[in-house]
Amino acid sequence: MSAAALDAAPTASVAVNPRTRLLLNGPILTTLLRLAWPNMLVMLAQASVGLIETWWVSHLGPDALAGIAIVFPGYMMMTMISAGAMGGGIASAIARALGGRRQADADALVLHALIINGLLGLGFAALFIGFGRSIYVAMGGEGAALEAAVRYSDVVFAGGLLLWIGNALASVLRGGGNMALPSAAVIAGVALLVPLSPLLIYGWGPVPAFGIAGAGYAVIAGTALTAVVLAWAVLSGRSIARLRLSKLRWRMFADILGVGAVASINTLQTTLTVALTTALVATASGTEGVAGYGVGSRLEYLLVPLVFGLGSPLVALVGTNVGAGQRARALRVAMLGGALAFGICEAIGVAAAIWPEAWLRLFGNDPTMLRVGADYLRRVGPTYGFFGLGLALYFASQGAGRLFWPLLTSVLRMLIAVLGGWFALRLTGSLSWVFVALAAAMVVYGVTLALAIGRGAWFKGQS
C-alpha cells in the first residue's frame, strides 16, 4: 500500500460519534436550537453578572463607574479572543477533524490549544499590568477615574490566565458538539460571583472592603471555579477529543491559529473601535459622559455573549459539515443562524431605543450620564440586529475556516465608526452625530458580510 493509502485506512474505519452524526444529519433548525438555547441562557446569565457587578460598582460613585468603563473594552477583548477568536479556532479545528473522522488529530489539538491559550494569557497579563495606566490615559482616563481603572485592571488581568485556560477547555468540548458541560461550568462560576462581588467590594464582618478591586477579586474567583469544572470535564473523558501527551506539531498549531489568529484581528478591531469611540466621548463630555457611553455600550456588549451562545453551535455545525464535505448544508446553517441572531438583537436594540432610561437608571442618575447614554441607545440601538447578524456569520465563518470577509467587514466597520465619528465631532461638535456614525457602521458590517457569504464567498476557488 502507498503511504497515502496507509494514512487513509484507519481514518475511514473510525466510527462516527452519535453527537457528530447529529451535526451532520439532524434537522438544521431543531439541532441548532437544541444546542443553542442552553448556551444562550447561560451566556446571558454570565453577562448579567457583569451588569450586576457594574451596578454594585456604580454605588462607589461616577469615578468608579467611569474607571470600570475604561477597563471594560480591554477585558472584553481578552474574553472575546480567548473564547470567541482563539476559542473559535480551537472548536473549528476539532470539529473539522471529527467531521473528517480524524480522531487522533482531534486528540492532539487539545494539548496544542492549551499551550496557545496559556501563552496568550501570560502575554495579556504582562501587557495590561505593565502598561495599563498608559493605555487608560490614552483612552481619556484621568484623576480618580484613572486610579480606579488601574486598581481594577491590575486585579482582573493578574488572574486572566485562568480565563484563557478555561475558555480553551470549553472550546474543546464545544468543538465536539457538547454545549451542556461548558454551560454548567459557567453556572458554577456565576453562582459564586453573584454573592462574592458585593461582599468583597463593601466588606462584611471580618471581610474587609476592597472597593473596586474587590469586584476584580470576585471575577477571578468565579473564573477559577469555572476553569476547575471544565478541567474535570475534559480530563474525566467527557469530551470526544481527549487530552493526550503527544509530540508538538506545527500543523496542529497552524490549524488553530489559521482561524484563531485572523479572528483575533477581528476582535482587536472591534475593541479598538469601542476604545477610540470612548476617547471621542471623553473629549466631548468628560468623565460623566464616558460613564453614560460605557453603560449604554455595555448593552451592546451584552449582545456578544448572547450571540456567542448561538455562535458556538454554529462553529461546531458548520465546521463538522465543512469537514465532511457538506458545503450546501453548512451554508444553510450559517444563514439560518444569522437570521436568528438578527431577530434577537434587533428586539433588544429597539426596546433600548424606546425606553433608554429604564436601562440607564439602573446604574445612576447623573444628568450627563443619562443624557449621553440615552442619546447613544436611541441612535445605535435600532441597528443592533445588524451587529448580531454579522457576529453570528463571523462565528459561522470560523467553523468554515474562512475569515477573509469577516475581517474585511470589521475593518469597514471600524473605519466608518471611528473616522466618521471623528469627522462628525469636528464638524458639528455633537456626540449625536458620532453615534449616527456608529449606527451606520453596524449596518454596513452586517449587510456586507451576509451578502458575501450568501453568494458563496467561503467556497470560491475550491473544487
From TrEMBL:
<feature type="transmembrane region" description="Helical">
    <location>
        <begin position="109"/>
        <end position="135"/>
    </location>
</feature>
<feature type="transmembrane region" description="Helical">
    <location>
        <begin position="334"/>
        <end position="356"/>
    </location>
</feature>
<feature type="transmembrane region" description="Helical">
    <location>
        <begin position="403"/>
        <end position="425"/>
    </location>
</feature>
<protein>
    <submittedName>
        <fullName>MATE family efflux transporter</fullName>
    </submittedName>
</protein>
<feature type="transmembrane region" description="Helical">
    <location>
        <begin position="431"/>
        <end position="453"/>
    </location>
</feature>
<dbReference type="GO" id="GO:0042910">
    <property type="term" value="F:xenobiotic transmembrane transporter activity"/>
</dbReference>
<keyword id="KW-0812">Transmembrane</keyword>
<keyword id="KW-1133">Transmembrane helix</keyword>
<keyword id="KW-0472">Membrane</keyword>
<feature type="transmembrane region" description="Helical">
    <location>
        <begin position="376"/>
        <end position="396"/>
    </location>
</feature>
<dbReference type="Pfam" id="PF01554">
    <property type="entry name" value="MatE"/>
</dbReference>
<feature type="transmembrane region" description="Helical">
    <location>
        <begin position="210"/>
        <end position="235"/>
    </location>
</feature>
<feature type="transmembrane region" description="Helical">
    <location>
        <begin position="155"/>
        <end position="173"/>
    </location>
</feature>
<keyword id="KW-1003">Cell membrane</keyword>
<feature type="transmembrane region" description="Helical">
    <location>
        <begin position="64"/>
        <end position="97"/>
    </location>
</feature>
<feature type="transmembrane region" description="Helical">
    <location>
        <begin position="185"/>
        <end position="204"/>
    </location>
</feature>
<feature type="transmembrane region" description="Helical">
    <location>
        <begin position="256"/>
        <end position="282"/>
    </location>
</feature>
<dbReference type="InterPro" id="IPR052031">
    <property type="entry name" value="Membrane_Transporter-Flippase"/>
</dbReference>
<keyword id="KW-0813">Transport</keyword>
<feature type="transmembrane region" description="Helical">
    <location>
        <begin position="302"/>
        <end position="322"/>
    </location>
</feature>
<dbReference type="InterPro" id="IPR002528">
    <property type="entry name" value="MATE_fam"/>
</dbReference>
<dbReference type="InterPro" id="IPR048279">
    <property type="entry name" value="MdtK-like"/>
</dbReference>
<dbReference type="GO" id="GO:0015297">
    <property type="term" value="F:antiporter activity"/>
</dbReference>
<dbReference type="GO" id="GO:0005886">
    <property type="term" value="C:plasma membrane"/>
</dbReference>
<feature type="transmembrane region" description="Helical">
    <location>
        <begin position="40"/>
        <end position="58"/>
    </location>
</feature>
